[in-house]
Specification:
Elements: H1 2-8, H2 14-30, H3 32-38, H4 46-64, H5 72-92, H6 98-110, H7 115-126, H8 136-158, H9 164-185, H10 187-192, H11 200-205, H12 210-219, H13 224-244, H14 256-275, H15 289-318
Length: 342
């Protein structure tokens, strides 16, 4: 499948093909839900998504790898080195590191704003020194760089059926929604890293504090007030998903099955957390394999149907929205579409 994807994307240089293949391996190994949804994209767009994921995963591992013995100072220096490599790759196209090489090529092909990567790395650096947030407003500033910009990076690759600036807020919201779900699912592991992404104001509203969460994590004991906090966090997360939902219909039709599938699978993690009694401090909630298969099959049926429509319409139909890389930073061609339910 890798060869087919690279051929369809017009990536022929052997070293660059190897770089993209490396990113695809990272996606397949670490981002199982994300990788599953990516398989529903047209083959020519998948390498770019793998490159974006591979870079984000690399930076995240520098900061978060629990198996690493690196000190905070060593992690900070590794992030600075990564940022320098990225800057060089984006400026001169001379990257030697495979992930940076693939990412730099994707950025040029799709005209992705370099600012999104600077904002992302700034949030990654803050994880080395910041262990908690006072409010959702403060957490939101962090998540702009750690999550919202991921949606904005993806948008040129996915294409839009109308002006990109109209879809951008929803793409950013979906990135935030996915990360809030990760925060809730991984709250125990994050505590082990010295971080808590549930705002202090939320904890205080239910009469608990960070120390109570750490006690529960350490002892395995439950506290109904902690459950109430987690339930409220899930409710907030669902509201962000609702804000993101209209953006799916704003994407190019061929990209909607992929993002719809990711939307359903990720929001389904909240259902799994609820079904497990909000026991996330003690075990990770997962979407049942059967449910994942049903959602993936539905996405596949939708993807095949959209591609069939494209083939029947031919070149005239394809011209209704941007379907491939851009060589300059230009807006997507625009036609309005109806909002569709997930």
């Amino acid at each position: 499948m890798t060869v087919r994807e690279l051929d369809a994307a017009g990536i022929h240089d052997p070293a660059l093909r190897a770089a993209y293949a490396r990113c695809r391996t990272l996606n397949a190994r670490h981002g199982k839900t994300y990788f599953l949804a990516t398989r529903l994209l047209p083959v020519d767009r998948r390498p770019a998504v793998h490159a974006l994921y591979g870079f984000a995963r690399w930076a995240d591992d520098i900061v978060d790898d629990l198996d690493s013995t690196a000190t905070a100072g060593e992690r900070a220096r590794a992030l600075l080195a990564l940022e320098a490599q990225l800057a060089e790759g984006l400026r001169r196209d001379r990257a030697t590191e495979p992930v940076i090489r693939a990412l730099s090529d994707t950025v040029r092909r799709y005209g992705i704003d370099h600012r999104h990567f600077r904002d992302f790395l700034a949030s990654m650096r803050s994880d080395l020194t910041v262990g908690g947030y006072a409010s959702y407003e403060e957490l939101g500033r962090y998540m702009h760089g750690s999550a919202a910009v991921i949606g904005l990076q993806m948008l040129p690759v996915l294409g839009t059926a109308g002006p990109r600036e109209e879809a951008a807020p929803h793409a950013a919201a979906l990135g935030v929604a996915f990360q809030l779900t990760n925060f809730l699912r991984d709250v125990g592991e994050d505590l082990d890293r010295g971080r808590l992404y549930l705002p202090a104001e939320l904890l205080a509203a239910y009469g608990v504090d960070r120390e109570r969460f750490e006690w529960s994590r350490r002892t395995g004991a439950r506290d109904g007030r902690i459950t109430d906090v987690l339930r409220a966090a899930a409710s907030h997360n669902r509201a962000v998903y609702r804000d993101a939902l209209p953006g799916i219909a704003m994407l190019a039709p061929v990209s909607r099955p992929c993002i719809r599938t990711a939307f359903v699978l990720y929001s389904g993690i909240l259902d799994a957390i609820e079904a497990d009694g909000y026991a996330v401090l003690h075990r990770r909630a997962v979407v049942p394999r059967r449910r994942r298969a049903v959602v993936a099959l539905d996405g596949l049926v939708r993807a095949v149907a959209v591609r069939g429509v494209r083939r029947r319409r031919g070149a005239a139909g394809a011209g209704a929205y941007v379907t491939g890389p851009v060589r300059r930073r230009t807006a997507d061609a625009a036609v309005p579409v109806r909002e569709e339910a997930v």
